[in-house]
Amino acid sequence: MQSLADLRSFLESPRKIVLFGHRNPDGDAIGSTLGLKRYLDPLGHDVEIIVPSEYPRFLSFLDGVEDVLVFDTHPDNCKSVMKAADLFILMDFNSLERIDKAGEFVATLTDTPRVLIDHHLDPDDDIAQVVVSRPSASSTCELVYTVIKEMGDAENVTPHIAEPLMVGILTDTGGFTYATNAELFRVVGDLFEIGVDNEKLQTEIFNSMTEKQMRLLGHCLANRMELIKEHNAGLITLTKRDYEQFDIRRGDTEGIVNYLLRIEGIDLAAFITEQPNITKLSLRSRGDISVQKMAAEYFKGGGHKNASGGYSHAGLRSTVSRFREALEAGVPVG
Q1: Is 269 helix (H, G, I), strand (E, B) or coil?
Q2: What pLDDT shows up at residue 179?
Q3: pLDDT given at position 334
Q4: What is the pLDDT of residues 154-169, one digit of tens each?
Q5: Which of 10, 191, 276, 288 could form a disulfide with 333 if both were Cys (CB 3.0 to 4.6 A apart)?
Q6: How far is CA 20 from each of CA 167, 182, 239, 306, 324, rounded to the nearest angstrom?
Q7: H or E element, residue 101
Q8: Using CA of residue 302, residue 305, residue 307, residue 312, what is the dihedral sign?
């Protein structure tokens, strides 16, 4: 199998297929896997979705998301499903390291063909036999629709399939704030014509915060925000104590980093959180500022030019110092 034409031929017979999303799955990881599953199921395939860790609460409105298998909690079940599979489709990540121990197990199953559908830069050379890697795309969800269309099957995309694809597009673009281009809006136009309910999705994604999340946002902006005006940068930090005080769970901090870019004159935003065993960073930027380069060089991370992430094994204070060093060295562009 070497091309989408080969994949289409392979899918002419019923197959056992596993779709993978990355650790800490976001709207694009869940939306793309769920959308592709909804496309493949009616064709007679047996499709399972595996992610390393739990998805955020705000995605729980999507039908079928409760059936997503989480490797961290059910590793033996996931391994059994993987052993029985005829095909692996890797979605919204560019290295098996992004799915942790599930990726280690995938690497041992060398007879199972792999397909990659992803929009991140620089996929690993040996990650899959069929590689659909297009960093110009807004999201992997956009690519899923494009792949179905390129295989000549766009007429079979129903509102049920379009819904999770639109979720990934909305979340990865921040409601069409970044990573946009003409092709994206052509795809969105198609999804609207298919019948996706944009008003419903906007409400579920952007207007369904809990009281706890709203109070946490207020705490971040009032007590944990710092502006580094000489570098047109903003920073929000959360400590382990903050996590305990607000009982922060997966998804509770979604989108907080973007508020910094609402401030006039701030072109680069960092959200640095102290986790039990690691310090995590979310980076956002405007224009030609490449937080992808900053994440890769300083924080063992990556992503997109204007939206990237990374991590550090140092503590919160040391990681913040490292971020300041990166600013002093010069904000990369590209």
Answers
A1: strand
A2: 85
A3: 63
A4: 999 999 999 999 999 9
A5: 288
A6: 17, 28, 31, 24, 35
A7: helix 100-108
A8: positive
Please give the single-letter amino acid code of residue 193.
Answer: E
Q: What percent of the chain has pLDDT over 70?
A: 99
Which tokens is 290 given? 């490449």
When the candidates are 1.20.1300.10, 3.40.630.30, 3.10.310.30, 3.10.20.440, the CATH number that belongs to 211-329 is 3.10.310.30
Cβ–Cβ < 8 Å for 147, 117? yes
Candidates 99, 95, 176, 96; CA nearest to 142 is 176
Q: Which CATH number fits domain 4-206: 3.90.1640.10, 3.40.50.1700, 3.40.30.10, 3.40.50.1100?
A: 3.90.1640.10
**Tokens standing for residue 297:** 């060089």
Residue type (1 letter), 184: L
Q: Can you give the pLDDT at residue 82?
A: 98
Locate 194 and state its tokens.
């298919």
Domain with CATH 3.10.310.30 in the chain: 211-329
Give 70's contacts (C-beta < 8 A, 6+ positions apart). Answer: 50, 51, 52, 53, 54, 78
113 token code pair: 């063909």
pLDDT in tens, 113-142: 999 999 998 899 999 999 999 999 999 999
For residue 175, the Cα-to-chain-centroid distance in whole angstroms is 14
Of 304, 201, 214, 203, give the one whose Cα is nearest residue 259: 214
Phi first, then psi, for residue 170 (nearest 5°) are -65, -45
Nearest to 150 by CA among 169, 168, 132, 138: 132
pTM as predicted: 0.90
